[in-house]
Design a protein that fits this description.
By secondary structure, the protein is mainly beta. Helix content is 3%, strand content 51%. Strands 2, 4, 5, 6, 9, 10 and 11 form a seven-stranded mixed β-sheet that branches. A four-stranded antiparallel β-sheet has the order 1-3-8-7, with no helix packed on it. The longest helix is centred in the last third of the chain and has 4 residues.
């Protein structure tokens, strides 16, 4: 069974930067797409970014374009989300997800496309 472990996050002032990382292990890992979603209290889960680990193609949600950068390492099955120019509205629990490219491509912004999920990590931006 594939396990997703996240790290990073924390508290930062508005305008600052943070990184969250994600590692997939176990099971059969090939042609993975790793995605980031976030959920703020009382709100629906929102797509943040995704990347194909083999090719490095990335997608971003409209609210984070130009501020967030996603990167991945195919050999290590890891992904990193670098967040800059953070705003109070970026405050949420950030979840890393992974799924096969066959299943995810074309639907990278849908949470239901991903098979494996991490436990989530809190990002709090103080204004």
């Amino acid at each position: 069974q594939v396990q997703i472990v996240e790290s990073g996050g924390g508290l930062v002032q508005a305008g600052g930067s943070l990184r969250v990382s994600c590692a997939a292990s176990g099971g059969t890992l090939s042609r993975l797409v790793m995605g980031w979603f976030r959920q703020a209290p009382g709100k629906e889960r929102e797509f943040v970014a995704a990347i194909t680990l083999s090719g490095g193609t990335a997608w971003y949600g409209d609210s984070v374009k130009g501020r967030f950068t996603v990167s991945g390492d195919n050999a290590g099955n890891t992904a990193e989300l670098r967040m800059s120019s953070l705003k109070a509205e970026d405050t949420a629990v950030y979840y890393c997800a992974a799924g096969s490219a066959l299943r995810v491509l074309g639907r990278t912004n849908y949470a239901s496309s991903y098979t494996y999920w991490g436990q989530g990590t809190q990002v709090t931006v103080s204004s």
